[in-house]
Amino acid sequence: MAHTASDTVERIGVVGAGLMGAGIAEVCARAGLDVLVAEAGRDAARAARTRIETSLRRAAGRGKLTADEADAALARLHLTTDLGDFADRDLVVEAVAEREDVKTSVFATLDKVVEREDAVLASNTSSIPVMRLGTATTRADRVIGIHFFNPVPVLPLVELVPSLLTGPATQDRARAFAENRLGKRVVLAADRAGFVVNALLVPYLLAAVRMLESGTASATDIDDGMVQGCAHPLGPLALADLIGLDTVTAIAESLYAEHKEPLYAPPPLLLRMTEAGLLGRKSGRGFYRYGPSGTGVNRGGSSSGVSAVGP
């Protein structure tokens, strides 16, 4: 039987199983795909499997899927520490740290080990130009950005980001994968730093940081203003904590490097907090302090287990 663009993606590779990579692996496994996840070492691989299993069990507990469906998804999930195991993958999503040198190294390796000539090599980058990742390979026409949003199992949006060299067949297969297999809503973005969402979102987050830094208002009042006054589900500083202040900084630096607009430059407070390891929820402290669960923020810092901290 002849294969079409929409039915030839069955074997998925995910490089990196942090917050985003684990979410991507989970939604792929839930969609019935064979998923292979690569992590740097055995301990990290075990932690990744536990992270994904915990999320699946939580989804089952909330009635989002049955216990049998969770078990089936977990059975489709496999871990490795060797990118050489990705030889048979139809589509690989890179989800490592938001650093150009790290990502280009991954793509150079994938170029050598992925054997299928028409395999799609995708990046979950939120700000690095896809062109630079593609030119780290000998198949830039097969490289594309597929940018998911956190939490991946919950948020429906995916930004599809072809570079100037991405072939139309690659774009079609990536769109079919995101829309038809994963059920995501796809928006097409030009290969510019920040794409659509972060090019709009990050200057807003940075403006909130500058407002806090200048003493105009407290973190709680800034966030409550946007939640209660503009019906945002989360205030900008709480959202920055959720994203991770290191990630916000990396995106801001990428935007500023490309556009040289002052509104994209990370404020000194954000830089100092990142340098101090105050990264938000994942570190237990950012613009707010978080309880052991790291959850509960929905309007500034007023929720249980969370308290605002000053600059």
Automatic annotation (TrEMBL):
Keywords attached to this entry: Oxidoreductase
Biological or metabolic pathway of the protein: Lipid metabolism; butanoate metabolism
Organism of derivation: Streptomyces solicavernae
Domain of life: Bacteria
3-hydroxyacyl-CoA dehydrogenase NAD binding domain sequence ranges: 12-191
Lineage of origin: Bacteria, Bacillati, Actinomycetota, Actinomycetes, Kitasatosporales
Protein family according to the UniProt entry: Belongs to the 3-hydroxyacyl-CoA dehydrogenase family.
Signal peptide feature range: none
Keyword Oxidoreductase included in the entry's annotation: yes
Protein's recorded name: 3-hydroxybutyryl-CoA dehydrogenase
Domain 3-hydroxyacyl-CoA dehydrogenase C-terminal: 194-290
Keyword Cell division among record annotations: no
